[in-house]
Specification:
By secondary structure, this protein is an alpha/beta fold. The protein has helices spanning about 15-25, 65-80, 100-110, 130-135, 155-165, 200-215, 225-235, 250-255, 265-275, 280-285, 310-325, 360-370, 380-385, 390-405; strands at about 5-10, 45-50, 55-60, 85-90, 115-120, 140-145, 185-190, 215-220, 245, 265, 295-300, 330-335, 350, 375-380. The strands form three sheets. Strands 2-3-1-4-5-6 form a six-stranded mixed sheet, sandwiched between helices. The protein has a four-stranded parallel sheet with strand order 8-7-9-10, sandwiched between helices. The radius of gyration is 24 Å and the shape is elongated. Mean pLDDT is about 85; it is low at about 30-40 and about 305-310.
């Protein structure tokens, strides 16, 4: 669900947020009631929008909720802002107050596209003067709507499409500039205790699919098969792979098994380049050399799964960092879309996973927050490559591509 574009519905209590979700989805997904505060925790619903594809609609609690419990509901709703690709702010009776204006500030602070929806137009139509103020003073778009008489649904869908953009989930192709038609790519996919039963992990599947989409040749094998592969294929140039892509944990071993001039990188590094700020990652990774005793390092794993003794983010990577730096580090972990309990500025380094289970918007929001806090940010794959002494080799294919582009 998290990889689909997400649209958050915000506003005060009883402005029709839940009704809008139901109208857009064509189902009674959210409970509708005249009782203020009916919606507590955010409610999510997947639907298809023509021209966009599947999206996730998120119904949030009213921003004017009261009491200790109400404040917690408001906080949960505000935490949704950084996750969404588009925010729809609902208001009624031509009234815009502090709650709405503060939300608009939050949207802009988080760089979230948004527009305003004046609901219940069947009772009180949008005043032209208020519409002008919104456009002129708030620099925002607004439209009139009625969930009870949604006779301008096409206009609403068009407004959503316009503000969401044509491809809010589109990322840079992982093999862009690296692999062409008929090129051979070796994909090293270990089958160990971390491999899902009967299938490959998502980044591996995505790279295989992209190789095929490029009409290139994918050779999928385990690391123990690498020496015999290179030994048996000989030195014929037309048979040599343009790239070897490995599971990050095998960087050190794979590097020793392939020719020194063979381009090499990792699945998570390809994903980091596709969905994150690759330059920020490369720069932040080098902060590993500056870590000191007592420094806090935050690991952000964007999917939630059962932890094992061989878990990469909770066990292996922290161990690699401790061993490489020789420092006593305080390693902390958050998973899914959780937020850290302490301020980001308390950390000396933040290491983000590839983000295969969340949207590019969510990955970039985390990176921007980290940068605003002045904290270096790295990526699982790049951090592993760094601790195993193959960082420069793992990023060399991308540097060569940049140099080639500059020479054109």
């Amino acid at each position: 669900m998290a990889r689909r574009p997400q649209i958050g519905i915000f506003g005060r209590r009883n402005t029709g947020k839940s009704s809008l979700i139901n109208v857009l989805s064509g189902q009674d997904v959210s409970i509708v009631s005249d009782v203020p505060g009916t919606t507590t925790d955010p409610v999510r619903k997947i639907m298809e929008i023509h021209g966009i594809g599947p999206v996730v609609l998120i119904d949030t609690a009213g921003m004017d909720d009261e009491g200790m419990l109400g404040e917690k509901r408001v906080l949960r709703s505000k935490e949704i802002i950084w996750q969404v690709n588009l925010a729809i702010l609902i208001f009624t009776e031509n009234f815009l107050g502090a709650y709405e204006k503060n939300l608009i500030k939050d949207f802009r602070l988080q760089e979230v596209p948004f527009f305003l929806l004046h609901n219940m137009s069947d009772k009180v139509p949008l005043d032209p003067g208020i519409e002008g103020e919104i456009i002129r003073d708030l620099k925002a778009e607004v439209m009139d709507f009625s969930c009870k008489e949604p006779d301008n649904m096409e206009q609403l869908i068009s407004m959503i499409s316009k503000n969401l953009g044509p491809s809010p989930f589109k990322t840079i192709p992982m093999l862009d500039g690296l692999v062409g038609e008929n090129d051979k790519v070796i994909l090293v996919c270990p089958i160990d205790t971390q491999a899902p039963e009967g299938r490959l992990i998502l980044p591996q599947v995505q790279v295989i699919r992209e190789v095929l989409d490029r009409r290139a040749i994918a050779v999928v094998l385990q690391e123990t098969q690498l020496p015999s592969y290179f030994r048996n294929t000989g030195k014929e140039q037309d048979r040599q792979p343009v790239l070897v892509v490995t599971d990050s944990q095998l960087f050190g071993r794979v590097e020793q098994m392939i020719p020194p001039d063979q381009p090499l990188t990792g699945f998570s590094i390809l994903l980091a380049r596709s969905k994150g700020d690759f330059n920020a990652y490369m720069e932040g990774t080098q902060a590993i050399d500056g870590l000191r005793d007592g420094d806090r390092v935050l690991f952000i794993e964007s999917c939630s799964h059962h932890s094992t003794c061989e878990d990469i983010g909770r066990v292996k990577l922290p161990g690699m960092l401790q061993k490489y730096t020789g420092k006593k580090l305080v390693c902390e972990m958050i998973s899914g879309l959780d937020r850290p309990k302490r301020p980001l500025k308390d950390y000396a380094l933040i290491i983000q996973c590839g983000g295969c289970m969340i949207t590019q918007r969510q990955v970039m929001s985390r990176i921007r927050e980290t940068q605003k806090a002045g904290v270096p940010v790295s990526n699982y794959g790049l951090a592993i490559a760094f601790t195993q002494g193959v960082f420069h080799r793992a990023i060399e294919p991308f540097k060569k591509m940049t140099d080639q582009n500059k020479s054109i």
